[in-house]
Amino acid sequence: MDAYVFPGQGSQFVGMGKDLYDNHSQAKAMFDKANEILGFDIARLMFEGTDEDLRQTKVTQPAIFLHSVALAACLGPGFRPAMVAGHSLGEFSALVAAGVLGFEDGLRLVSKRALAMQKACEARPSTMAAILGLEDSEVEQACAQVDGEVVVAANFNCPGQVVISGSLEGIDKACELLKEKGAKRALKLSVGGAFHSPLMEPARAELAQAIADTPFQAPYGKVFQNVDAQPHSDPERIKANLIDQLTAPVRWTQTIEAMIREGATRFIEAGPGNVLQGLVKKVDRKMPAESAKA
User: Fold this and answer.
1) pLDDT digits over 62-121, tens only?
2) Which of 68, 88, 126, 167 is catalytic?
3) Do residues 160 and 278 touch, judged by C-beta distance below 8 A?
4) How crowded is residue 230: how many other Cβ atoms within 10 Å of its Cβ?
5) Model confidence over 128-154: pLDDT tens digits?
6) Active site residue 196
7) With b meaning 16 or more CB within 10 Å and e meaning fewer, what string describes 180-209?
8) Which of 113, 115, 271, 285 could staple 68 via S-S, CB 3.0–4.6 A?
9) pLDDT at 53
10) Domains by residue range for the chain, with CATH
11) Are 250 and 155 in contact (CB under 8 A)?
12) Rounded Cα distance, 183 and 134, in Å
């Protein structure tokens, strides 16, 4: 069974989506509609902008979402994925592909999410760091040992790779502690803030009402969500999990394992880049993983 996975922030690149725009009328219509909804020419920034343009959260998140859902829409009129999951932002793309969210509603929510997260980042300087070579539990224990600062495990990406998130001082202290515990690397990431941590609570509160007011439908197949790595089909539960996702960790390792248990025999990444294929291979090196082709 094919499992479709959708990438999150960090997978963007200049030129993303141009082949879809040039070769598929449906994709072109989606890009044109996105320009109208967002109030700026996101297509131009994606095709001709700079790396710096694409790193702005208010651009990055809608750009990756747009590329992913346009690609999924071009996979055929009968495209009904049996199982989907998305990494962080990618969960919104997965919900559109699964028929839970309409494209326009999804784009509006992603734009609101991006702006709310940007605001939360500006209110409290914070960051993230990738920790390589330790067990998940060791990383969590080290974060808990940092007193007086916010620092938590934010992304369980694959065995031996956990991203932590928190205040600037909290991340510095945690990185030192994790190196002492034997981490191969503790690498600070060039991100604007502490995503998937309690520091995103203002963004969570802002996004909650928008999600509550947006119509969600039951999915075509199984939607595996970040907060608990479990499949969900109830629209209200999907909404609640999507809200909680902003301050809760992304359980990606557990998600891939759960999808394999549920019958996934091949993973197909729909969106820019190939980061998720690499993570799938680190969870199960024998599992086929490839990029979606429209």
Assistant:
1) 999 999 999 999 998 889 999 999 999 999 999 999 999 999 999 999 999 999 998 988
2) 88
3) no
4) 16
5) 999 999 999 999 999 999 999 999 999
6) yes
7) ebebeebeeeebbbbbbbebbebbbebbbe
8) 271
9) 87
10) 2-122+198-291 (3.40.366.10), 125-188 (3.30.70.250)
11) yes
12) 6
Q: Secondary structure of 128-142 in the HEC alphabet?
A: EEEEECCCHHHHHHH
Rg of the chain's alpha carbons, rounded to an integer? 18
Give the DSSP H/E element, type plus range, for residue 152: strand 151-158
Residue 52 buriedness (CB in 10 A; 0-12 / 13-18 / 19+):
exposed
Over 90: is that where the pLDDT of 124 sits? no
Pairing of β 161-167 and β 289-291: unpaired
How many other C-beta atoms can be found within 10 angstroms of the C-beta atom of residue 112? 18
88 catalytic? Reply is yes
| pLDDT value for 162 | 97
pTM: 0.94
Centroid of chain to Cα 192: 15
> For residues 95 and 144, is the Cβ–Cβ distance under 8 A?
no
Q: How many residues does the chain have?
A: 294
